[in-house]
Amino acid sequence: MPVNMIPPSQTQRLRRIRILTTVFILGLLVSGVTAIPLVTELNWLVSAMGGEASRGTVASTDPGQWLLRMRAALEQTQAAHPQLFYGTDWLAFGHIVIAIAFIGALRDPVENRWLFDFGLIACALVIPWALIFGAVRGIPLWWRLMDCSFGVVGAVPLWLCRTWVKRLRAETACPA
After folding, report:
1. Helix (H, G, I), strand (E, B) or coil at 156
2. Backbone phi, then psi, for 8, in 5-degree steps?
3. Would you say 93 and 28 are in contact if contact means Cβ atoms under 8 Å apart?
4. Measured between alpha carbons, how far is 18 from 107 in angstroms, rounded to an integer?
5. Distance CA 122, CA 155 (A)
6. What is the per-residue pLDDT for 56?
7. Is 151 helix (H, G, I), strand (E, B) or coil?
8. What is residue 52's predicted lDDT score, i.e. its pLDDT?
9. Angstrom distance (rounded) from CA 124 to CA 138
10. How far apart are CA 21 and CA 18, in angstroms?
11. What is the per-residue pLDDT for 89?
């Protein structure tokens, strides 16, 4: 059925799918791009959390102390082994490529409905990945849970889109 022949309720559903898909794409892009300037971002985060005015001050909270340790480790790594940051550059690239793939779901969500399943599987995998590898790398549980929240938050728009696409398919009698 051509887009201009879709009934208003289906047009609204299609618009909602596209809005949430756009939000998901933007989340992937932001998540990817922020994997590049790690030291700068950690400085901003320490400052935003009421971090020290000088390098000698130690944060009074466990998360604050951990952030200061991570900042020192990143600064030392950047000074001695900047090539290691190439890994996070590729992490950013992966996020951006996945965001580009979701343009297919943005253009034609019914035909590219598999992308919502793919995204939901990826979001589900974030949780064991963060919990297992975070533990292996000595990442505090509170940070791992924050990482897990990205999978949970990302799954919400994908699940809604998947549900709405299934309804659109049923209403328009699209073949499987």
Report:
1. helix
2. -55, -40
3. no
4. 8
5. 9
6. 47
7. helix
8. 62
9. 22
10. 5
11. 96
Per-residue confidence (pLDDT) for residue 9, from 0 to 100: 86
| Beta carbons of 68 and 135 less than 8 angstroms apart | no
Q: Which residue has the tokens 């949970």?
A: 152
Cβ atoms of 165 and 147 closer than 8 Å = no
Q: pLDDT tens digits, residue range 58-91?
A: 466 788 888 888 999 999 999 999 999 999 999 9
Q: Would you state the structure tokens that stand for residue 165, as one six-digit string?
A: 């696409």
Supply 170's token pair: 């049923």
Q: Which two tokens stand for residue 125?
A: 């995998």
Low-confidence ranges of the chain (pLDDT < 50): 53, 56, 58, 174
In the numeric block, which tokens belong to residue 15? 């618009």
With CA atoms as reference, report the closest residue to 9 among 175, 164, 174.
164
* Nearby residues of 10 by Cβ (< 8 Å), 6 or more positions away: 168, 171, 172
Whose tokens are 């900047």? That residue is: 82
* Residue 100, CA atoms < 13 Å, CB-side half-sphere: 7
